[in-house]
């Protein structure tokens, strides 16, 4: 587990690194552990369960010598983007929801213009890392679980 903690302890520099990384650790001759570290900019708590499910489905299928049989997504991002654009409209259209929402917040926050909204850097003493899916080829089975590991910033 120390190797997993060390792997997850490395911080992310999202200006130069991808916001997700994974490594497969060999913890025994036939035992392996996949660790996945994700920056919060690329995933949230709702993303962890589908990712674990898809990795486990893929692993189980590959053990059987088959391709993973993932279900097609009911909605794709492109569909969502089109729906959102149709719903919100544009700032150029004064009758659009986007325009009226922006006007509401402009008005609601008008008295706060005197405040300075400087970016504040908060030192965070810990990060969370998701380590998942311990595999045992010897047993021909796998177990999957997400474990939140408290780790310190590198």
Counting helices, strands and paired strands, the structural category is alpha+beta
- The tally of strands reads 4
- The number of distinct helices, counting runs of at least 4 residues, comes to 4
Largest sheet data: 4 strands, antiparallel
CA distance, first residue to last residue: 17 Å
Widest sheet: strand order? 1-2-3-4
Mean pLDDT: 75
Backbone CA Rg? 22 Å
- Residue fraction in strands: 15-25%
Catalogue the unreliable spans: 119-154
Q: Helix content range of the residues, please?
A: 25-40%
Apparent shape: elongated
Task: List the secondary-structure elements in sequence, H or E.
Answer: HEEHHHEE
Explain what this protein looks like in three dimensions.
The chain is an alpha+beta fold. It has a domain at 2-71 and 125-151. It contains 4 helices and 4 strands. The protein has helices at 2-9, 45-63, 77-88, 97-108, and strands at 20-28, 31-38, 127-136, 141-151. A 4-stranded antiparallel beta sheet has the order 1-2-3-4. A hairpin with a 4-residue loop joins β3 (127-136) and β4 (141-151). The chain is elongated, with a radius of gyration of 22 Å. The two termini are 17 Å apart.
């Amino acid at each position: 587990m120390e190797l997993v903690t060390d792997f997850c302890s490395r911080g992310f520099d999202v200006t130069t690194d991808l916001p997700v990384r994974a490594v497969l650790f060999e913890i025994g001759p036939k035992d392996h552990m996949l660790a996945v570290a994700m920056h919060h900019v690329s995933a949230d708590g709702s993303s962890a369960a589908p990712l674990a499910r898809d990795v486990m489905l893929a692993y189980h299928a590959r053990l059987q010598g088959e391709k993973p049989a993932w279900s097609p997504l009911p909605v794709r991002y492109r569909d969502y983007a089109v729906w959102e654009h149709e719903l919100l409209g544009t700032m150029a259209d004064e009758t659009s929801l986007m325009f009226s929402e922006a006007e509401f917040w402009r008005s609601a926050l008008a008295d706060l213009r005197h405040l300075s909204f400087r970016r504040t850097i908060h030192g965070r003493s810990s990060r969370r890392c998701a380590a998942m899916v311990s595999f045992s080829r010897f047993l021909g089975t796998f177990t999957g679980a997400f474990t939140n590991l408290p780790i310190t910033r590198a």
